[in-house]
Amino acid sequence: MTREMQATRTPDDRFMRECFALAEKGKGAVSPNPLVGAVLVRGGKVIARGWHRRFGGPHAEVECLKHAGGNARGATMYVNLEPCSHFGKTPPCADAIIAAGVRRVVVAMRDPNPLVSGGGIRKFRDAGIAVTTSVLEPEATWINRFFLKHIRSGMPYVHMKIAQSIDGYIGGPGAPRWISSPPSRRLVHQWRSEYDAVLIGAGTVLADDPRITVRHVPGRHPHVIVLDGRLSLKDSHALMRRTNERFVFLATLDRYAARRRETVRGLEDKGIIVLRFHSTGDRIPLGDVLREVYKYGIGSVLIEGGSGVFAQVRDGDLADEVTVIVSPFMLGGGVPTYATPGQAGANGRDARTIVRTVGRDVHFHTILKEG
What is the pTM of this model? Predict the structure, then answer.
């Protein structure tokens, strides 16, 4: 261990990392709320823990105070996001912390929500509670990247996943049903359980009739968004069956919806949400689709194909993360990864790429940052 690493291992760091681990237990269950964990400490020992378990349920701080009983007075609370100071689905957490007699609050990062942003911290200081902020803030930012993106922009966080052969094809004659290896597919199913929705194009539905469910890992099924500009799909496809667990959104062009009113009515009678968009061409404006589904509480989207959708994400610079899974075989032809030539990163964003092996595959995982 280097001297620099030793210097960063303070008690505040250690307890904040425990908050991070607790917060991540809420993945896939709390959206569009943030992931939050809280720890109460007295005399260097944890006396209570809590995390936000589900949307609409008690916040992490309240859960932690409940487990502490009357022992919170004089203790230090660690929390990875500034406690709320306003009435929403639950009362303000800041008020509960003050009432419990907590002596000190350690916060990893301020809440960017305009309804909070600094309000909780001000309440604590006005009440005479010591506050420490910006503890391991970069890690806290990464954990809540979904929340930070949609609360600031009004658009979901977007992760584009591509599985391709080594020569750059995602399907076609002679291609196996799954290009990626079983370990890669398990990872993708883990992502599905954590993202609010999976988005695909009509071509992928016609070619593969996918279910877009979570099967290889525990977790809930994501909502589904299908781009079908010409309204070519039928309600008999596997993913076009809405359940109580998820919504199915079908995005189409308004002129095709106007011509096929009976088709639209049949889809809507089965519980499918048909979204209509205007375009002079046959391409649905994907940015508009993302903004519209956010109104339904979709705060994060995993994009899984196909080549036309990938090209539109690239050309519109709409992705926050891109994972390219490259499997070690050649198809020699078929469906290229991108339907049209182009260049990623057209808007000049900085990027950081991590390369790792998963099973037989190589994953190129790029995190795009505002430049």
Answer: 0.91
